[in-house]
Amino acid sequence: MLRIALQKSGRLSDASLKLIKECGISFTNGTGKLKTVADNFPAEFLFLRDDDIPRYVADGVADVGIVGENVVVEDRSAVTIAQKLGFSKCRLSIAIPRGESYQGIESLQGRHIATSYPNILGDFLKKNNIKATIHEISGSVEIAPSIGLADAICDIVSTGSTLMSNGLQEVEVVFHSQAVLIQTPTLSNEKQKLLQKLLFRIEAVQNARNNKYILLNAPNEVIPKITEILPGMKSPTILPLAMEGWSSLHSVIQEDQFWEIIEQLKAAGAEGILVVPIEKMIY
Ligand code: ATP
Ligand code: MG
């Protein structure tokens, strides 16, 4: 049985559970339960504080886990990243009081910086030849400058609204993070096979999220032009319509190219364009 560690409650929990569900793995989870077995996959779930996940996985208490890359890198436990998961994206940034002058990274020389990420920050400062004093604090980092504890902070930012409301401005991005699936360095053959099975499913879910199925109608004479615009998995499926001289084309397009492609298709003469979500996608 594969033991999977997930965050019990927090910013990773909902998206982690959604991914597991979309991988077709279901379980009944009584509220407050710390451990549960999947109904239809040889897996057991452990619900933990996110900070504990890298160590549990490194120690082999759990075989794999879903956690923020920031926590994995900071923790320095011996785990490997099996897959980046594309959700809970955020960055670790240095911020200083708003209105204070900043002439680039040299302005941090000799300063005091408060953070919960002393290792990541320490590496960043070293790489940039900055000598600063790091104050490790475990929470409410953003108030450190206003209470005179530090000149700057290094903390997680997603929209920047927390910085804003604490009178801080972001000056350096130290690290880009997203949720990752980590694995213990030594897995038995049997567990390795289960992990491969899980990774195969995760990939199918991720591909589906990044792609859309597109259907459109077009006069036959513009089919070559439209085929050129549609990248698709291979070539588009082309079906004749009951209306003489017209066809229906089906293909797959990437989410990030979506609007640009739709405009080009319209300009080329496509009509009745339908775009539908894909549930799973295997190349
Ligand atoms: P726990 O109680 O499990 O220790 P926590 O309070 O330490 O939880 P959360 O705030 O739930 O942690 O954040 C978990 C992870 O989610 C972070 O390590 C980071 O990778 C990511 N994260 C944090 N803040 C944001 C944000 N604003 N937007 C997106 N992702 C975020
Ligand atoms: Mg935590």
TrEMBL record:
<comment type="pathway">
    <text>Amino-acid biosynthesis; L-histidine biosynthesis; L-histidine from 5-phospho-alpha-D-ribose 1-diphosphate: step 1/9.</text>
</comment>
<keyword id="KW-0547">Nucleotide-binding</keyword>
<comment type="function">
    <text>Catalyzes the condensation of ATP and 5-phosphoribose 1-diphosphate to form N'-(5'-phosphoribosyl)-ATP (PR-ATP). Has a crucial role in the pathway because the rate of histidine biosynthesis seems to be controlled primarily by regulation of HisG enzymatic activity.</text>
</comment>
<keyword id="KW-0479">Metal-binding</keyword>
<keyword id="KW-0963">Cytoplasm</keyword>
<feature type="domain" description="ATP phosphoribosyltransferase catalytic">
    <location>
        <begin position="49"/>
        <end position="203"/>
    </location>
</feature>
<dbReference type="GO" id="GO:0000287">
    <property type="term" value="F:magnesium ion binding"/>
</dbReference>
<dbReference type="InterPro" id="IPR018198">
    <property type="entry name" value="ATP_PRibTrfase_CS"/>
</dbReference>
<comment type="similarity">
    <text>Belongs to the ATP phosphoribosyltransferase family. Long subfamily.</text>
</comment>
<dbReference type="InterPro" id="IPR015867">
    <property type="entry name" value="N-reg_PII/ATP_PRibTrfase_C"/>
</dbReference>
<dbReference type="GO" id="GO:0000105">
    <property type="term" value="P:L-histidine biosynthetic process"/>
</dbReference>
<feature type="domain" description="Histidine biosynthesis HisG C-terminal">
    <location>
        <begin position="208"/>
        <end position="280"/>
    </location>
</feature>
<keyword id="KW-0028">Amino-acid biosynthesis</keyword>
<dbReference type="InterPro" id="IPR011322">
    <property type="entry name" value="N-reg_PII-like_a/b"/>
</dbReference>
<dbReference type="GO" id="GO:0005524">
    <property type="term" value="F:ATP binding"/>
</dbReference>
<keyword id="KW-0067">ATP-binding</keyword>
<dbReference type="InterPro" id="IPR001348">
    <property type="entry name" value="ATP_PRibTrfase_HisG"/>
</dbReference>
<dbReference type="Pfam" id="PF01634">
    <property type="entry name" value="HisG"/>
</dbReference>
<dbReference type="GO" id="GO:0005737">
    <property type="term" value="C:cytoplasm"/>
</dbReference>
<keyword id="KW-0328">Glycosyltransferase</keyword>
<dbReference type="InterPro" id="IPR013115">
    <property type="entry name" value="HisG_C"/>
</dbReference>
<dbReference type="InterPro" id="IPR013820">
    <property type="entry name" value="ATP_PRibTrfase_cat"/>
</dbReference>
<keyword id="KW-0808">Transferase</keyword>
<dbReference type="InterPro" id="IPR020621">
    <property type="entry name" value="ATP-PRT_HisG_long"/>
</dbReference>
<protein>
    <recommendedName>
        <fullName>ATP phosphoribosyltransferase</fullName>
        <ecNumber>2.4.2.17</ecNumber>
    </recommendedName>
</protein>
<dbReference type="Pfam" id="PF08029">
    <property type="entry name" value="HisG_C"/>
</dbReference>
<dbReference type="GO" id="GO:0003879">
    <property type="term" value="F:ATP phosphoribosyltransferase activity"/>
</dbReference>
<keyword id="KW-0460">Magnesium</keyword>
<keyword id="KW-0368">Histidine biosynthesis</keyword>
